[in-house]
Design goal:
heterodimer, B: mainly alpha, 2 domains, 10 helices, flat
Chain lengths: 367, 272
């Protein structure tokens, strides 16, 4: 699952570096708040542990072996934010020092394995384990499910990243410039190995280690970072550092908005026109008429543009029709610019609304 | 191959990792072209070349950078044999397997056809397979040449001087140090278990053994982190990370950096 250099386009790599950097920033901030000076040695040694566990050959049913990433167990012990940092550091060492995974693709690899994997494992472990006792078999099952699904979620995201490359990046003759396989090949090719070997290896490591820790070091299952090391009996849900207890800060929301804006070019992937969002031109082109008919249960379309659509469509001409301003040739950049413009308008509207509401409140106070 | 071969293959994996690290440390001390340059120039220059390779859309331009990478390796006294074993064959095996089906699956103008088998190789398929393999080989060669010609501590210092947060640089440095300690610990645990294993273990027992070892390693890691933390506190650590940077750029560093960037720009221009 470690994507080497050359499989992803530069713009994909840059997008994932931005997304991963926001994740690393948030994780580092959260960990430093909770651990203060202890963060650096704990995350460093845990990252080293993850690195070594990735080298273990895990025996699987059927006589074969597989390698685990360790995302399940690191999330259970450190929580998702700590796990993001530990797995990312381990991946960075692998890429920079051992040449396993690319440098330009490090952001994407960290996003896939550290971020998607950790949050998936965290959500599933909490969901399945619920409030069960720390020593219950249910937690072993929860760890197995969390590890198995997390690694498969990571693999699926990786496959999608690879699978969209030939659609988005090809030359004039149609030659794919980066990963050559479309989604219908990339997804099964990636998932077969992960649904069987890698997923099982992750499930075995996560479940086996939780089972071991239940007998040998229960404190580690009680939420290491939140300071509950040494909890020995009571049924308490692990409360790792990731449990968000406060409202999201405006700064974080800005980061999320920025990430979503960067992801807007994904809209280009959607083929055809959304049902019910047809322009008057769509009724005159034979190609789009076929699409509309196919999407409408093959009902016959009117032979000409409906009068109402024709009349009302002339009322307003959008400055950026179809998220593609006429002065921009690159559709991705057009999408991005439309997103920036739209968000800018919303921010402006909210600032005006806030100013008006403050003025109105001040007026009420004076009266 | 015995049914307990998972133990041997894990131990071999550990040995390979340690051997690679020793090889890198040894190569980094050799007198060579890259070794004479400031580490920041090496990191920035190689990174620029890797980015140019990823940006490049023509196989000829990527091949030219591959030759530059080989020339850099030779001038930096990086053994081509080890480069072939460590990078070229591995990448060819991995990316080659991925690229071969693209010859047949990529739609386009047919180059060779076998109608009886319903198979045809398209021109676009050949182009994409060559681009993929060449790009991955070149990027991996450049990265490996950097790693083999630069001590890990210098790479980290260079990253810090490029404004990577000090906490991240410290974590990378500490992780790198403790990776080898934990590899040694895991190695000893597996070896001691192997020396006491008679006969063939069942599949379930092998799994239990692996997860127990991982569990013990986890407990040891946590204890180790606490010891490291106490040691850091005893030396006056208060959460502030300071790294020494004693790099000084010379005239040849500026010239080399310019050469790296000009090569990268020329590659992007030729391969557009």
């Amino acid at each position: 699952m470690h994507i080497p250099d050359g499989y992803l386009s530069p713009s994909t790599c840059a997008t994932f570096y931005v997304v991963a950097a926001s994740g690393w920033y948030g994780a580092l901030k959260r960990i430093k708040q909770l651990l203060a000076t202890r963060a650096i040695p704990l995350i460093s040694v845990f990252a080293a542990f993850c690195f070594v566990v990735m080298m273990f050959n895990v025996p699987l049913p059927g006589g074969t072996t597989g390698h685990a990433v360790g995302v399940g167990v690191s999330t259970i012990v450190l929580g998702p934010w700590g796990s993001i940092l530990a797995i990312s550091i381990a991946l960075a060492i692998q890429a920079l020092f051992f040449g396993d995974g690319g440098i330009t693709t490090l952001g994407a690899n960290c996003f896939n394995m550290a971020m998607v994997g950790s949050f998936t494992a965290y959500a599933l472990y909490r969901l399945v384990a619920a409030n069960s006792d720390l020593k219950s078999r249910r937690r072993v099952l929860a760890a197995a499910i969390a590890g198995y699904v997390a690694i498969n979620a990571s693999a699926l995201v990786t496959a999608v990243e690879l699978g969209v490359q030939p659609m988005l990046f090809h030359d004039a003759s149609g030659t794919p410039l980066y990963a050559p396989y479309p989604l219908h090949v990339a997804i099964p090719a990636m998932m077969i190995g992960h649904l069987t070997l890698a997923g099982l290896a992750e499930a075995v490591i996560a479940a086996g280690m939780v089972s071991y820790l239940q007998r040998a070091d229960l404190g580690l299952l009680g939420g290491l970072i939140s300071g509950t090391r040494g909890v020995s009996g009571p049924a308490s849900t692990p409360t790792p550092l990731a449990v968000a207890t406060s409202e999201p800060s405006p700064g974080r929301l800005w980061w999320i908005v920025a990430c979503l804006m960067l992801l807007t070019p994904l809209g280009i992937l959607a083929a055809g026109t959304a049902w019910g969002e047809w322009s008057s031109a769509a009724f005159t082109s034979p190609h789009t008429r076929d699409q509309i008919a196919a999407g409408s249960g093959n009902h016959a379309l009117p032979s000409s543009v409906p009068v109402g659509i024709q009349r009302l469509s002339a009322v307003w001409t959008a400055p950026f029709p179809g998220y593609a301003p006429s002065f921009i040739r690159n559709p991705m950049f057009g999408y991005l610019l439309s997103a920036i413009f739209g968000v800018g308008l919303l921010v402006l509207a909210s600032l005006i609304a806030r100013a008006v509401s403050r003025k109105w409140s001040a007026g009420n106070l004076h009266s | 191959m015995s049914r307990n071969s998972f133990l041997e293959s894990t131990l071999q994996g550990f040995a390979r990792a340690v051997s690679k690290a020793l090889q890198s440390e040894h190569a980094a001390t050799q007198p060579g072209l890259l070794q004479h340059l400031d580490p920041r120039v090496r990191v920035l220059g190689i990174l620029a070349l890797v980015v140019s390779v990823v940006l490049c859309r023509r196989a000829e331009a990527i091949a030219a950078i591959f030759l530059v990478a080989v020339a850099l390796a030779v001038a930096s006294r990086v053994s081509l044999t080890s480069l072939a074993r460590r990078v070229w064959l591995v990448v060819l095996g991995f990316s080659g397997v991925i690229a071969v089906p693209a010859l047949f699956l990529t739609p386009g103008e047919p180059l060779v056809a076998a109608p009886a088998l319903h198979l045809s190789i398209s021109v676009q398929g050949v182009r994409t397979a060559v681009l993929l393999v060449l790009r991955v080989e070149t990027a991996a060669t450049l990265t490996t040449v950097l790693v083999l010609s630069t001590a890990w501590t210098h790479i980290l210092k260079a990253l810090r001087s490029l404004h990577l947060p000090a906490e991240i640089v410290t974590m990378l440095a500490m992780t790198h140090r403790y990776v080898f300690l934990l590899i040694e610990t895991a190695n000893q645990m597996f070896e001691s278990r192997q020396s006491r294993t008679v006969g063939i273990l069942s599949s379930a027992e092998r799994r239990r053994m692996t997860t127990r070892t991982a569990g013990v390693l986890l407990s040891k890691s946590i204890e180790l982190s606490q010891e490291v933390y106490l040691a850091m506190l005893s030396r006056g650590f208060r959460g502030e990370v300071r790294l020494l940077s004693d790099f000084r750029l010379q005239l040849c560093d500026y010239a080399s950096l310019t050469a790296f960037f000009l090569t990268a720009c020329a590659t992007v221009w030729m391969g557009r």
